[in-house]
Write a structure and sequence with these properties.
By secondary structure, the protein is α+β, with helices and mostly antiparallel strands. It folds into two domains: 179 residues, Jelly Rolls, CATH 2.60.120.620; 41 residues, DNA Excision Repair, Uvrb, Chain A, CATH 4.10.860. The chain is built from five helices and 17 strands. The strands form four sheets. Strands 1, 2, 4, 5, 6, 10, 14 and 17 form an eight-stranded antiparallel sheet that branches. The protein has a five-stranded antiparallel sheet with strand order 3-7-15-12-13, with no helix packed on it. A hairpin with a 6-residue loop joins strand 8 and strand 9. Helix 4 runs antiparallel to helix 5. The longest helix is centred in the last third of the chain and has 21 residues. The two termini are 22 Å apart. GO terms for molecular function: 2-oxoglutarate-dependent dioxygenase activity; iron ion binding; L-ascorbic acid binding. InterPro entries: Oxoglu/Fe-dep_dioxygenase_dom, PKHD_C, PKHD_hydroxylase, Pro_4_hyd_alph, Pro_4_hyd_alph_FE2OG_OXY. This is PKHD-type hydroxylase.
Length: 229
């Protein structure tokens, strides 16, 4: 399941994050320093130093935005969230070739291990600020090309092959992170999300009825059956 989270960041949050990332003293590093041996062959971008005060401040802002977004919780059912990282693509460091993320990742920021059930990219540059730079996701439904407004995010299965196409003009800034879900399997999460969204619509149309109460029970019993906490 691929999900577009619109307006995840507020206007003020976007402006502050951009000011920090665009500052002359922002500690950008070669993105290959954080990649495994296979990924390093195709990774040609820059990454904000994870141990910098700038990264710590911006991580907290992105996590706060995710935690207040009900659609994110419904779709991801997060158990753990890998501390957000920040990357930069520009013609000097333009692309990240086709790859798949590691199944279990170690966060140097807090030391936790996170299974990468879902991946999330938060776009920090508007589409007209750069050419190229599409997040391209290869899955069983074909190729999905994603290039969203600044402040929007996309959530997609961590099992997907994906890439960032070369940036030929401008600068593409983004935050990226992974989520370990309480519900490990994508198909089960998708069913729970669809049930939750349809229940929400039924309540809005009909109010609380015996049927919506019963279906809510079905949702929670399925979640109880499938969730690990």
């Amino acid at each position: 399941m691929l999900l577009h989270l619109q307006g995840l960041l507020t206007t003020d949050e976007r402006a502050h994050i951009r000011a920090v990332l665009d500052a002359p003293d922002a500690p950008w590093r070669d993105g290959r320093l954080s990649a495994g041996s296979q990924a390093a062959l195709v990774k040609h971008n820059e990454q904000l130093a994870h141990d910098s005060p700038q990264a710590a401040e911006l991580r907290a802002m992105v996590l706060t935005a995710l935690q207040r977004e009900p659609l994110f919780f419904s779709a991801a059912l997060p158990r753990k969230i890998f501390n957000p990282l920040f990357n930069r693509y520009r013609p000097q460091a333009p692309a990240y070739g086709r790859h798949i993320d590691g199944a279990v990742l170690h966060s140097q920021a807090d030391g936790q291990w996170v299974r990468s059930d879902l991946s999330c990219t938060v776009f920090l540059s508007d589409p007209d600020e750069y050419d190229g730079g599409e997040l391209t996701i290869h899955d069983t439904f074909g190729v999905q090309r994603v290039k969203l407004p600044a402040g929007d995010a996309v959530l997609y299965p961590g099992t997907s092959l994906h890439e960032v196409t070369p940036v030929t003009r401008g600068t593409r800034l983004a935050s990226f992170l992974w989520i370990e879900s309480m519900v490990r399997h994508d198909e089960q999460r998708r069913l729970l999300f669809e049930l939750d969204m349809n229940l929400l619509q039924l309540r809005q149309q009909l109010g609380e009825t015996a049927q919506t109460t019963a279906l809510t029970g079905v949702y929670h019993n399925l979640l109880r059956m499938w969730a690990s906490t």
